[in-house]
Design a protein that fits this description.
Elements (H helix, E strand, L loop, with lengths): L5 E5 L6 H11 L3 E3 L3 E2 L14 E2 L2 H9 L3 E7 L2 E6 H9 L3 E5 L2 H10 L4 E6 L3 H11 L4 H15 L7 E4 L3 H16 L13
Parallel strand pairs: 1-7, 1-8, 2-7, 3-4, 8-9
Antiparallel strand pairs: 3-6, 5-6
Bound molecules: adenosine-5'-diphosphate (ADP) and guanosine-5'-monophosphate.
Guanosine-5'-monophosphate (5GP) binds next to strand 5, strand 6 and helix 4.
Length: 198
């Protein structure tokens, strides 16, 4: 009855994007995450082909020249990219697709996928963002500083997105996130071949 939707989610690192996306994917079996390729080293608990496909820089660069990415970007010193083949495969399965990508990647996607829904997650303040990143303990000190510096630039891009969620209380933020997903599904533009049952 309706075409699959591409949901593009961006946020400064530590704003809670993964937490919100994880919960959405747990509840909505008809939304699939496009697993990105990255040259970043896996964090504790991250699984290959589940959280990311972890590859070398050499392999990543070969994929760029081979036209394998719908978008790619250098983020915090590592390369990240969305595979064209994975997007095509998910789209054929008829589900909605979630892209967890940075602002540079979202800009590239906007040029080629006009009907996507763009959602930006903001932290309540820089201080809280810093606290969350420190508490997560996934980055060494220098990497954490880099992420916080980058956050200031990234936050300026929020107006280029269709929706913004301030992730203060997690329950509220999740409810807002889910509302955006549900209302996007009801947009007339996403309904195809509707005819009134006789
Ligand atoms: P991102 O994917 O945007 O980098 P995460 O989802 O990893 O961020 O969240 C960063 C940290 O903040 C995690 O430890 C997570 O558990 C915590 N967190 C996320 N949302 C909230 C919230 N609303 N209140 C308090 N802590 C949160
Ligand atoms: P992390 O290293 O914390 O998992 O992710 C760092 C940043 O890279 C996040 O903003 C995340 O959204 C972004 N990212 C993850 N995958 C991709 C991708 O395929 N393309 C782009 N452009 N950014 C990505």
């Amino acid at each position: 009855m309706r075409a699959g939707i591409l949901f593009v989610i961006s946020a400064p690192s530590g704003a809670g994007k993964s937490t919100l996306c994880r919960e959405l994917l747990r509840r909505f079996k008809d939304i699939k995450l496009s697993v990105s390729y990255t040259t970043r080293a896996p964090r504790k608990g991250e699984m290959n082909d589940v959280h990311y496909t972890f590859i070398s820089r050499k392999k990543f660069k070969n994929m760029i020249t081979g036209g394998k990415f719908a978008e790619w970007a250098m983020v915090h010193g590592n390369l990240y990219g969305t595979s064209v083949d994975r997007l095509k495969k998910l789209s054929k399965e008829g589900c909605d697709i979630l892209l967890d990508i940075d602002v540079q990647g979202a800009k590239q996607v906007k040029n080629s996928y006009r009907n996507a829904v763009y959602i930006f997650i903001l932290p309540p303040s820089m201080e809280i963002l810093k606290r969350r990143l420190m508490k997560r303990k996934t980055e060494p000190k220098e990497a954490l500083t880099l992420r916080l510096e980058k956050a200031k630039d990234e936050i300026l891009s929020y107006k280029e997105y269709d929706y913004v969620i301030i992730n203060d209380k997690l329950d509220n933020a999740y409810r807002e996130f889910e509302s955006i997903i549900l209302s996007s599904r009801l947009r007339t533009g996403n309904t195809v071949n509707f005819s009134m049952p006789q």
